[in-house]
Amino acid sequence: MEPPRPDAIEVTVVVVTWNALPWLEQCLDSVRGRDVVVVDHGSTDGTLDFVREHHPAVRIVQQENKGMGGGNNAGMRVAGGRYFFLLNSDAWVVGDGLDRLVAFADEHPEAAVIGPRLVNRDGTLQRSARGEPTLWPLATEYLFLRKLAPHTRLLNPLYRGDFAHDRVEEVDWLFGPALLVRHAAADQVGLFDESFFMFSEEVDWLTRFRHAGWKVLFFPDAEVVHVGGASHGGRLYVENLRGHIRYASKHRGPKAAERVRLMLLWSLRLRALVLRREHYREGIRFLSSGRADTLLR
Q1: In this predicted model, what pLDDT tens digit does every residue of 119-173 receive, in sequence order?
Q2: Is the dihedral of CA 206, 209, 213, 214 positive or negative?
Q3: Once rounded to an integer, what is the mean pLDDT over residues 97-115?
Q4: If exposure means fewest CB atoms within 10 Å of the residue's CB, which of 84, 138, 197, 246 is most exposed?
Q5: Comparing C-alpha atoms, which of 82, 257, 54 is closest to residue 184?
Q6: 58: alpha, beta or left? (left if phi > 0; alpha if psi -120 to 50)
Q7: For the chain, how big is the Rg over CA atoms in Å?
Q8: At what angle do helices 237-252 and 201-211 cross, to 10 degrees?
Q9: Predicted pLDDT at 297
Q10: What is the pLDDT of residue 92?
C-alpha cells in the first residue's frame, strides 16, 4: 500500500482496532471524509466487515497484535499528510474538534504533539495532562497519597492536580486516546518504541520529542469523548506495571528501574491487604519474579 504524498492531504487519522465494536462506529463517523487508516490486530467481532461496508474509503492494514505503539506505527508508515491524528477506536471527535487542533498546530510550529480535552461519555473531564512518571509521581498514585490533596502538584503530580485543563499548557506528556502529531517531528524523532507493548508507549514517545527540543501542548478548545479500557477490558494490569519499569530503565537507568519495581511491589502488597483483587495478586507475582532487568527481557 503506497502512502499518499505528504503534501496531498492535511491530516491522516490512524485508528488501531481489536474487537472494537460497537464504539468504532462513532469513532469513524466523527472523522468521516478524512484520510483514515484502520490497523486491525486480528478482530473476530465483525470489525473489518463493518469498516468495509460502512466506510469503504478507509484503508485497512491487517497485522498480528503488536500493541498500541506497533499498531499506530503501521498506520503512520502508510499515512500522508502534514499531521497524524492517532485516535483510539473507543474515542470520537466532537464537532469540528479536529479542524481546531490542526489550526492550533499550524499556529504553533514548535509543537510536535497536541492533545485535545478528553471527556467521559457523561461529559465529565478525563485528566489527560500528565507529569513525568518518575519514582515520586508513581508513589503518589500507587500509595494513594494523591487522595490526601488531589488538587495539588506536590501530592498529585502524575495527574497534574494543579491544572484544571481549562487553558493551553505545555506538559510532560499526554494520555494517548487522541493525539495530533506533526509528521515532520515524527520523521526527526522516530515512531513508537515497540518494546512497549501497551501502556507507557506514549510517555516514552513524548519524552523523546521533548528531549529533541519539541513541545507537547494541551489544547482545551477541541474535545474528544473517550470510553476507556474498551479494547483491553482492564485485563493488562501486568503490562501497565512493566511499562512503568521499562520507562524508568530507558530514561533513568537500571537503578531507577529497580527502585520503581520495589515501590510498585510494596504498594501492591499494601493494597492487597485491604482490597483482595486478583489483578493486585497478579501484579505481586510478576513484580516478585525477578529484578527489573529480568522483568524486561
Answers
A1: 999 999 999 999 999 999 999 999 999 999 999 999 999 999 999 999 999 999 9
A2: negative
A3: 98
A4: 197
A5: 82
A6: beta
A7: 19
A8: 20
A9: 86
A10: 98
Q: CB–CB of 86/181 below 8 Å?
A: yes
Residue with cell 487522595: 147
Write out pLDDT tens, residues 170-206.
999 999 999 999 999 999 999 999 999 889 999 999 9
Q: How far apart are the first and last CA of the chain?
A: 33
Distance from C-alpha of 75 to C-alpha of 206, rounded to nearest angstrom = 18
CA torsion angle 14 17 23 27 (round to 10): 10
Those residues with Cβ within 8 angstroms of residue 82's Cβ, 6 or more apart along the chain or in another chain: 6, 7, 10, 11, 182, 183, 184
Phi and psi angles of residue 248, each rounded to the nearest 5 degrees, phi first:
-60, -40
The pLDDT confidence band at residue 235, using thresholds 50, 70 and 90, is low
Find the mean pLDDT for residues 82-90: 97
The residue to which cell 502534514 is assigned? 82
The Cα angle at residue 176 between residues 51 and 242, in degrees rounded to 5: 110
Per the listing, cell 511499562 goes with 243
Whether residue 54 is predicted with pLDDT greater than 60 in this model: the reply is yes
Residue 188's Cβ-count burial label (10 Å; 0-12, 13-18, 19+) is middle
Degrees to nearest 5, angle at CA 163 with 114 and 224: 40
Whole-number Å distance between alpha carbons of 155 and 74: 38
Average pLDDT over residues 71-93: 96
Longest dimension (CA), the chain: 58
Question: Is-contact 153 161, C-beta < 8 A?
Answer: yes
pLDDT at res. 197: 86
Look up residue 124 and give its DSSP letter. Answer: P
Q: Where are the alpha helices (DSSP H) in 152-198?
A: 183-189
CATH numbers and ranges of domains, the chain: 11-128+165-226 (3.90.550.10), 237-290 (no CATH)
